[in-house]
Amino acid sequence: MPSVRRSHERNFQFSQTDRFVEWMTCALRGQFVRVLRVHCAGDFYDVGYTKKWVRIAGLVPQVQIFCYTRSWRCDDIFPELLRLARLPNVQLWWSLDRETGPAPLVQGVRRAYMAIDDADAQTAPDDCDLVFRASTKTILKKANGVQVCPPEQGVNRDPEITCTKCGICWQARRPVWEAALLGRIHKDLAA
Question: Residue 138's domain spans which residues?
Fold first, then answer.
Protein backbone atom coordinates (compact mmCIF):
# COMPACT_ATOMS: atom_id res chain seq x y z
CA MET A 1 0.00 0.00 0.00
CA PRO A 2 1.47 3.35 -1.02
CA SER A 3 0.22 5.16 2.11
CA VAL A 4 1.87 2.59 4.41
CA ARG A 5 5.11 2.79 2.43
CA ARG A 6 5.06 6.62 2.72
CA SER A 7 4.40 6.37 6.45
CA HIS A 8 7.30 3.95 6.97
CA GLU A 9 9.60 6.19 4.91
CA ARG A 10 8.54 9.28 6.91
CA ASN A 11 9.17 7.44 10.20
CA PHE A 12 12.56 6.22 8.96
CA GLN A 13 13.59 9.76 7.99
CA PHE A 14 12.44 11.16 11.34
CA SER A 15 14.36 8.46 13.24
CA GLN A 16 17.55 9.85 11.74
CA THR A 17 17.03 13.32 13.18
CA ASP A 18 18.39 14.76 16.42
CA ARG A 19 14.79 15.31 17.61
CA PHE A 20 13.84 11.61 17.57
CA VAL A 21 14.87 10.71 21.16
CA GLU A 22 13.18 13.73 22.74
CA TRP A 23 10.02 13.33 20.64
CA MET A 24 9.70 9.59 21.35
CA THR A 25 10.34 10.07 25.08
CA CYS A 26 7.71 12.83 25.30
CA ALA A 27 5.22 10.80 23.26
CA LEU A 28 5.61 7.75 25.50
CA ARG A 29 5.23 9.82 28.66
CA GLY A 30 2.41 11.97 27.29
CA GLN A 31 0.37 8.97 26.16
CA PHE A 32 1.06 7.09 29.43
CA VAL A 33 2.36 4.12 27.45
CA ARG A 34 2.99 1.10 29.65
CA VAL A 35 4.06 -1.46 27.03
CA LEU A 36 5.76 -0.70 23.72
CA ARG A 37 6.75 -3.00 20.91
CA VAL A 38 9.54 -1.44 18.88
CA HIS A 39 9.39 -2.23 15.16
CA CYS A 40 6.22 -3.94 14.12
CA ALA A 41 7.96 -3.55 10.77
CA GLY A 42 11.66 -2.82 10.41
CA ASP A 43 14.71 -3.34 12.58
CA PHE A 44 17.70 -1.62 14.17
CA TYR A 45 19.38 -0.36 11.03
CA ASP A 46 22.63 1.16 12.35
CA VAL A 47 24.63 1.86 15.49
CA GLY A 48 23.40 5.45 15.92
CA TYR A 49 19.76 4.46 15.71
CA THR A 50 20.26 1.59 18.17
CA LYS A 51 21.97 4.00 20.60
CA LYS A 52 18.90 6.24 20.37
CA TRP A 53 16.72 3.35 21.57
CA VAL A 54 19.14 2.70 24.44
CA ARG A 55 18.70 6.35 25.46
CA ILE A 56 14.91 6.26 25.04
CA ALA A 57 14.54 3.09 27.11
CA GLY A 58 16.73 4.58 29.82
CA LEU A 59 14.61 7.74 29.94
CA VAL A 60 11.29 5.89 30.30
CA PRO A 61 11.89 3.17 32.91
CA GLN A 62 8.13 2.95 33.55
CA VAL A 63 7.56 1.63 30.01
CA GLN A 64 8.01 -2.09 29.34
CA ILE A 65 9.74 -2.24 25.95
CA PHE A 66 10.07 -5.35 23.85
CA CYS A 67 11.54 -5.89 20.43
CA TYR A 68 12.53 -8.61 18.03
CA THR A 69 15.67 -8.17 15.99
CA ARG A 70 17.76 -9.91 13.38
CA SER A 71 20.40 -7.21 13.75
CA TRP A 72 22.25 -9.52 16.15
CA ARG A 73 23.97 -10.63 12.93
CA CYS A 74 25.55 -7.16 12.44
CA ASP A 75 28.90 -6.98 14.24
CA ASP A 76 28.76 -3.19 14.66
CA ILE A 77 25.19 -3.12 16.06
CA PHE A 78 25.54 -6.17 18.34
CA PRO A 79 27.30 -4.34 21.25
CA GLU A 80 24.55 -1.72 21.36
CA LEU A 81 21.89 -4.42 21.37
CA LEU A 82 23.61 -5.93 24.41
CA ARG A 83 23.43 -2.51 26.14
CA LEU A 84 19.74 -2.33 25.30
CA ALA A 85 19.12 -5.86 26.60
CA ARG A 86 20.70 -5.02 29.96
CA LEU A 87 18.13 -2.33 30.72
CA PRO A 88 15.59 -3.58 33.30
CA ASN A 89 12.55 -2.42 31.30
CA VAL A 90 13.62 -4.04 28.01
CA GLN A 91 12.81 -7.53 26.78
CA LEU A 92 14.98 -8.19 23.74
CA TRP A 93 14.41 -11.15 21.46
CA TRP A 94 16.75 -12.52 18.82
CA SER A 95 14.67 -13.34 15.77
CA LEU A 96 15.84 -16.36 13.82
CA ASP A 97 14.71 -18.72 11.11
CA ARG A 98 16.16 -21.44 8.93
CA GLU A 99 18.13 -18.84 6.92
CA THR A 100 19.68 -16.83 9.77
CA GLY A 101 21.40 -19.72 11.46
CA PRO A 102 21.57 -20.05 15.23
CA ALA A 103 21.40 -16.90 17.34
CA PRO A 104 23.93 -16.41 20.13
CA LEU A 105 23.05 -17.37 23.67
CA VAL A 106 23.10 -14.15 25.69
CA GLN A 107 21.93 -13.91 29.27
CA GLY A 108 18.52 -12.24 29.44
CA VAL A 109 17.88 -12.30 25.68
CA ARG A 110 15.22 -14.69 24.47
CA ARG A 111 15.10 -16.30 21.05
CA ALA A 112 12.10 -16.58 18.74
CA TYR A 113 11.92 -18.82 15.69
CA MET A 114 9.91 -17.60 12.70
CA ALA A 115 8.36 -20.55 10.86
CA ILE A 116 6.90 -20.37 7.38
CA ASP A 117 4.81 -23.53 7.83
CA ASP A 118 4.25 -26.37 10.30
CA ALA A 119 7.07 -28.49 8.89
CA ASP A 120 9.46 -25.57 9.30
CA ALA A 121 8.15 -24.99 12.84
CA GLN A 122 9.20 -28.53 13.77
CA THR A 123 12.82 -27.59 12.94
CA ALA A 124 12.88 -24.79 15.52
CA PRO A 125 15.88 -25.18 17.82
CA ASP A 126 14.69 -26.82 21.04
CA ASP A 127 16.46 -24.13 23.06
CA CYS A 128 14.31 -21.34 21.57
CA ASP A 129 11.77 -19.63 23.76
CA LEU A 130 8.92 -19.17 21.32
CA VAL A 131 7.83 -20.10 17.80
CA PHE A 132 5.83 -17.82 15.52
CA ARG A 133 3.96 -19.21 12.52
CA ALA A 134 3.14 -17.54 9.20
CA SER A 135 0.14 -19.85 8.79
CA THR A 136 -2.22 -20.68 11.64
CA LYS A 137 -4.71 -22.88 9.78
CA THR A 138 -3.76 -25.93 11.84
CA ILE A 139 -3.65 -26.38 15.59
CA LEU A 140 -0.10 -26.40 16.90
CA LYS A 141 0.65 -25.60 20.55
CA LYS A 142 4.29 -26.75 20.55
CA ALA A 143 6.81 -27.12 17.77
CA ASN A 144 9.81 -29.36 18.47
CA GLY A 145 8.98 -28.98 22.16
CA VAL A 146 8.92 -25.15 21.99
CA GLN A 147 5.79 -23.18 22.81
CA VAL A 148 4.01 -21.60 19.85
CA CYS A 149 2.82 -18.02 20.35
CA PRO A 150 -0.65 -18.49 21.95
CA PRO A 151 -2.55 -16.31 19.44
CA GLU A 152 -0.88 -18.31 16.64
CA GLN A 153 -1.70 -21.78 17.96
CA GLY A 154 -4.75 -22.07 15.70
CA VAL A 155 -7.05 -22.73 18.63
CA ASN A 156 -10.38 -20.90 18.79
CA ARG A 157 -10.65 -19.30 22.18
CA ASP A 158 -13.35 -17.33 23.91
CA PRO A 159 -12.33 -14.77 24.91
CA GLU A 160 -9.59 -14.68 22.30
CA ILE A 161 -6.02 -14.50 23.61
CA THR A 162 -4.34 -11.28 22.62
CA CYS A 163 -0.80 -10.02 23.11
CA THR A 164 -2.02 -7.80 25.93
CA LYS A 165 -3.59 -10.71 27.77
CA CYS A 166 -0.74 -13.14 27.08
CA GLY A 167 2.32 -11.00 27.89
CA ILE A 168 4.93 -13.64 27.04
CA CYS A 169 6.83 -11.22 24.83
CA TRP A 170 6.98 -8.24 27.13
CA GLN A 171 6.98 -9.63 30.66
CA ALA A 172 10.36 -10.34 32.19
CA ARG A 173 11.12 -14.05 32.08
CA ARG A 174 14.23 -16.15 32.07
CA PRO A 175 14.95 -17.59 28.62
CA VAL A 176 14.24 -21.31 28.26
CA TRP A 177 17.86 -22.17 27.45
CA GLU A 178 19.12 -20.05 30.38
CA ALA A 179 16.75 -21.74 32.84
CA ALA A 180 17.78 -25.18 31.53
CA LEU A 181 21.46 -24.31 31.81
CA LEU A 182 21.05 -23.06 35.39
CA GLY A 183 19.14 -26.24 36.23
CA ARG A 184 22.05 -28.33 34.91
CA ILE A 185 24.56 -26.26 36.86
CA HIS A 186 22.57 -26.62 40.09
CA LYS A 187 22.22 -30.36 39.46
CA ASP A 188 25.99 -30.70 38.88
CA LEU A 189 26.76 -28.73 42.06
CA ALA A 190 24.43 -30.92 44.10
CA ALA A 191 26.13 -34.09 42.86
Answer: 97-182
